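Task: encode each sequence below as structure tokens.

Item 1
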Amino acid sequence: MIGIVAFFAVLIGACQGATFDIAPYNTSVEIGGTATIACIVSNLGSDSVTWKKVVSGSSTTTISLNTQILASATKYSIVGTYNLTISNVVTDDVALYQCTVGSVTNEAYLNTVILPTNVSVYWESAPRAGSSVNLTCKATYGNPPPFLRWYKNDVDFTQDAYYYTENTLSSGYGDAMSTVAISLLSTDENKLYRCEVHYEGWYRAMEYTLQTQLSGSSALQSSGILAAMLLAAGALLRNM
């Protein structure tokens, strides 16, 4: 009985054919960096996996067959099942790449970016408990300007922010800006606000974290201590 069940399990698996667990998706990388384009396949069976690069129009160059590299072995490698890694990326590597399994093809675009020269996060006015203050993230001189994501103590709240670009040039360089209004409470002291630089397929390329220091918090604390001391002194005098 067990043998019959195993036979049908193998038969069903063979009928299902290979599947893309993770299909290729557009990916970004810095010039000179290493890019990996995902193509994770299961239940391959007798099918094969082929990577191709679209060089012009519909013309392609075959890079690999399963794990065998058919192009430059110093440029390409297959990692896992069957991700394509491209080393020392140059502008000529910017292209559409195709992962074909059996008769099914999925494709993704590799793009190059130049990271911003600086990322900063700052309050636009003094942060005080009980007030609403704008918090701004600026990524300077990136090509193209990146998208910016916000996290408060690792919780994403990007949907509350306003994103825009400034100083954009015809060359593609520009500044990315993102501003969010924060309603501050006394419990926000020491909370962490993180701004991350994101490109398509490349997340957390850069980041900046700001720890909240509420204005006047130390003075308020001192005032509270002084008030407590005065109350204690008053109680002591009444008991004398």
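Item 2
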Amino acid sequence: MSFKRSREDLTKSDSEDEPETNERIECCKTDLQSEFAVLRDDMQQFKAECTNNVNKLSAELSKTQDNVSLNYERILICGKLNDLLLSGVPYQSSENISNYVRSVSLALGYSDQDRPLIYTKRLARLPIADGAAPPLLLQFTFRAARDEFYRRYLSSRNLSLSHLGFTINKRIYLNENLTELARAIKGSALKLKKDGKLHSVFTKDGFVQVKTRAEDEARPVLSMEQLTN
């Protein structure tokens, strides 16, 4: 038996095998394309899940940070709830701050017998120039006494330098002792009020409260972002 094959036979055999080979190649190509398509879909789904999880974690982290900041702010506010600030009183080197507080108390309807115990100091470093008016810090022994003192002031808002013995009748003001953040929020809120975007701005228990319209309920503003939004 002869195992020799002619060139013609080999060429003929290759020609006969070519369609089958091409078919196998196309089949493999189709299979690979299908597998790549499935892999691409899986990767896109995995990417979407990762993005969703990252967004959720970011939102939770932001919420946690906001809660931490709010709790820290509340701690700072708690340290100031027994305080009031008396503003608009010019400094004099010979001033008697205790007499100022006594005069304010009498103007608000207290007598010498029932006026509350108040520790007072200027919120400024020495030396203070004559005529400057850094606020006076009024620290009350009891929160209830502070609230009543402030309530009496708010009912009239009628305090002036003449009550303290000055010859001019310029108004002076009692306000809550706000934290740095609350002061910034209040300042921005007052600008919005001036621009007609807010109806009223006030503070209550250390937090800034605003009304957009007269008939609206007051809402607390806890951050600058909340105010601008």
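Check on item 2: Residues 203 and 209 are 5 Å apart (CA to CA). The first strand starts at residue 83 and ends at 87.
End of task.
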